[in-house]
């Protein structure tokens, strides 16, 4: 048996409990480069227990909907930002934490120009590009020790 999970539009308000929505909405905080560039300043809370911030490039396999959600993961030692390197939408899955167990999964579809930053310890789905080439810049913790927990659901969710 699978549990249906409807896709939601990704907004700053809907994503706020799980992380930061990164986009260029609203008025720029300041103009730079002789007024030719709007700077949307400090849009994500990078949070690491130790180590340092690093930028890696991920190339994920394209997913299609409907998609079975079997597991989620979290990073207890640091936040993790996914910045697409194309204007294509991608799937973002998050869950609330209930005493160490992920509950109430939500699935969001990004719009062109949106990126996300998961707060440290947020349960989330794996990288899920919905088009090729699935290239992302990922900003996360580089350091010693384990920074990954996985949770496999007893029943799959079906994201539609």
What does this structure look like?
It is built from one helix and 15 strands; from the N terminus they run E-E-H-E-E-E-E-E-E-E-E-E-E-E-E-E. The protein has one helix at 12-15; strands at 2-5, 7-9, 19-22, 30-32, 37-39, 52-59, 67-74, 80-84, 90-98, 101-109, 115-118, 123-124, 128-129, 135-142, 149-159. A hairpin with a 4-residue loop joins strand 4 and strand 5 (37-39).
Which percent bin holds the helix content? under 10%
Number of helical elements: 1
**Helix/strand-derived class?**
mainly beta
Could you tell me the mean pLDDT? 97
Strand content: over 45%
Name the shape in a single word: globular
Number of strands: 15
What order do the helices and strands come in, and which of them pair?
Blueprint: E1 2-5, E2 7-9, H1 12-15, E3 19-22, E4 30-32, E5 37-39, E6 52-59, E7 67-74, E8 80-84, E9 90-98, E10 101-109, E11 115-118, E12 123-124, E13 128-129, E14 135-142, E15 149-159
Parallel strand pairs: 1-15, 2-10
Antiparallel strand pairs: 3-11, 4-5, 6-14, 7-15, 8-11, 8-14, 9-10, 9-12, 9-13
Any descriptors?
single chain, 160 residues, mainly beta, five-stranded mixed β-sheet, five-stranded antiparallel β-sheet, 1 helix, 2% helix, 52% strand
């Amino acid at each position: 048996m699978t549990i249906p999970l409807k896709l939601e539009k990704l907004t700053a308000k809907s994503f706020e409990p799980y992380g930061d929505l990164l986009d260029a909405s609203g008025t720029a905080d300041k103009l730079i480069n002789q007024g030719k560039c709007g700077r949307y300043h400090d849009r994500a809370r990078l949070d690491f227990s130790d180590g340092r911030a690093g930028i890696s490039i991920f190339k994920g396999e394209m997913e299609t909907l409907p998609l079975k959600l079997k597991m989620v993961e979290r990073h207890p030692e640091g936040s993790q930002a996914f910045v697409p390197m194309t204007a294509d939408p991608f799937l973002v899955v998050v869950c609330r934490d209930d005493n160490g167990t992920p509950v109430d999964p939500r699935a969001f579809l990004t719009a062109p120009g949106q990126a996300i930053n998961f707060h440290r310890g947020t349960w989330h789905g794996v990288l899920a590009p919905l088009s090729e080439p699935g290239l992302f810049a990922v900003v996360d913790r580089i350091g010693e020790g384990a920074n990954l927990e996985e949770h496999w659901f007893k029943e799959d969710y079906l994201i539609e």
